[in-house]
């Protein structure tokens, strides 16, 4: 039973993981595993420590000064910036950055090479 982590077994497990997940997924899985272990260790460290004491000084919020109203943008212009429309199929796609695009062609409409 103690012979499970021999070099030959580790090589076979590595090849199996490569075949199952592929070269693109393995770094992502390793990163996720490392972050999970780091979070687990930090959580274990936090169990032994006493919780930090709450600050005894009460902070008050200062109300923000009123902001002058900005000139309103036309409704048609702001509506056009929320999504992009494919010129070939007419499907709508999110436009999170608000860039103005005139002739957008989605991936499904682009010719395959």
Low-confidence stretches: 72-80
Q: Helices and strands: which structural class?
A: mainly alpha
Q: Main sheet, how many strands, which sense, barrel? A: 2 strands, antiparallel
Beginning-to-end CA distance, first to last residue: 53 Å
Q: Given the structure, what is the number of helices?
A: 2
Average pLDDT rating: 75
Q: Into which percentage range does the β-strand content fall? A: 5-15%
Total domains, how many?
2
The main sheet orders its strands as 1-2
Q: How does the overall form come out from the CA principal axes?
A: flat
Compressed to H and E, one letter per element, the order equals HHEE
Structural Rg: 27 Å
Number of strands: 2
Helix content: 40-55%
Please describe what this structure looks like:
- This protein has 113 residues and is mostly helical.
- It has two domains: 1-48, no CATH class; 75-113, no CATH class.
- The protein contains two helices and two strands.
- Strands 1-2 form a two-stranded antiparallel ribbon.
- The longest helix has 42 residues, at 7-48.
- It is flat, with a radius of gyration of 27 Å.
- It starts with 6 loop residues before the first helix and ends in a 19-residue tail after the last strand.
- 0% of the residues are buried.
Describe the secondary-structure layout.
Blueprint (H helix, E strand, L loop, with lengths): L6 H42 L26 H6 L2 E3 L6 E3 L19
Antiparallel strand pairs: 1-2
Keywords:
single chain, 113 residues, mainly alpha, 2 domains, two-stranded antiparallel sheet, 2 helices
């Amino acid at each position: 039973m103690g012979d499970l982590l021999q070099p030959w077994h580790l090589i076979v497990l590595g090849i199996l993981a490569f075949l199952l997940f592929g070269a693109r997924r393995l770094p992502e899985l390793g990163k996720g595993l490392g972050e999970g272990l780091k979070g687990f260790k930090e959580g274990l460290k936090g169990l032994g420590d006493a919780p930090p004491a709450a600050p005894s000084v009460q902070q008050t919020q200062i109300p923000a000064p009123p902001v002058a109203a900005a000139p309103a943008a036309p409704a048609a212009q702001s509506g056009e910036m929320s999504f992009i429309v494919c010129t070939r199929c007419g499907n709508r796609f999110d436009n999170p950055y608000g860039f103005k695009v005139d002739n957008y062609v989605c991936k499904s409409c682009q010719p395959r090479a």
